[in-house]
């Protein structure tokens, strides 16, 4: 990995992309420390105590407890992306746009941006009204509510813009890298909190060693699953054209165990945080019931979280990989899977194999996501919010970004037939 980074730094184009990405990270971190105008910061910290807000604060990179301009993070955009993906299955017009290639995807991306701003505004209004009841405004009034709502919405829109800039001009997926940067930025504070707990005797050295061992096992498991493949053999028939013979070689179709990457975790986490976050600020008995039943660590929260991850793993895999299209392309170019007829039988076989692989990958993701509940019980570190999920996102995004580095380097140094 270090050799890849050193080689990338020597390439001018890649160096510019890396520097641009780091500059965008700097802008993100500066925005995290810019508070919304008219807010009592100390009152905000008191109003956002609890494990739910610890989780949300890690995702936002510490922006939520400060109620900075990036307090809502990128979650409205993620929720908008989820809803637009689901609508593509229901609305024929969106489905047709998705099949029109790059032009159609640009139109859908534009719709997603507008919808994300709308969702962000609705969420910001709810947050400003609810936080106003907690007494966090220096000068309560309609103007304060409107200022907070508009500032939070603008912050989300800016994060969305930064993420797209990183994807276009930087290296890696911008949205995933923003979440990655937020999680990594909280690591020093987490280690400091753990050191304080150790110094006062609330945890012992055995708990720290056990936590470190579990973390290393999770990292090894994430790497193994992300890199795991099932290879389906493909044979190409020989074709005689004039005096030349084409085809006849054998290759394979690599099917990844975790085809969806970290996207299902991010989607499921955003959906799980949203209702509890809203219920936390509503003064009503049913809101308290929702908050307690869906609180981090509860049985219902763990079950729903795991089921959502499994659902989104299948859903996203179905979007990014179509077995029937693969089978049709194989048939078109004279390829076939040994023992199977080209066309539909090949597509059904690939679909069955992919379904079994996706189930294994989805169960792994779900287990990693709910693992903190067991880690808290075993290690006794109650301030551990969602270490498994955080590690999964960090390692997954790091692996995907390194693959992009390698792809750029491969294209850069590929000489082809002519030197």
Automatic annotation (TrEMBL):
Gene Ontology BP term (one): protein targeting
Transmembrane segments: 18-36, 69-91, 111-130, 142-162, 174-191, 203-225, 262-282, 302-322, 357-378, 384-402
GO cellular component terms, semicolon-separated: plasma membrane
One Pfam family matching this protein: SecY
Membrane topology: Multi-pass membrane protein
Alphabetized UniProt keyword annotations: Cell membrane, Membrane, Protein transport, Translocation, Transmembrane, Transmembrane helix, Transport
Compartments it resides in: Cell membrane; Membrane
Predominant localisation class: membrane
RNA-binding among keywords: no
Keyword ATP-binding applies: no
InterPro entries found in the cross-reference section: SecY, SecY/SEC61-alpha, SecY_CS, SecY_dom_sf
Record's subunit section: Component of the Sec protein translocase complex. Heterotrimer consisting of SecY, SecE and SecG subunits. The heterotrimers can form oligomers, although 1 heterotrimer is thought to be able to translocate proteins. Interacts with the ribosome. Interacts with SecDF, and other proteins may be involved. Interacts with SecA.
Protein family according to the UniProt entry: Belongs to the SecY/SEC61-alpha family.
Function: The central subunit of the protein translocation channel SecYEG. Consists of two halves formed by TMs 1-5 and 6-10. These two domains form a lateral gate at the front which open onto the bilayer between TMs 2 and 7, and are clamped together by SecE at the back. The channel is closed by both a pore ring composed of hydrophobic SecY resides and a short helix (helix 2A) on the extracellular side of the membrane which forms a plug. The plug probably moves laterally to allow the channel to open. The ring and the pore may move independently.
PANTHER family named in the record: SECY/SEC61-ALPHA FAMILY MEMBER
Protein name as catalogued: Protein translocase subunit SecY
Taxonomic classification: Bacteria, Bacillati, Bacillota, Clostridia, Thermoanaerobacterales
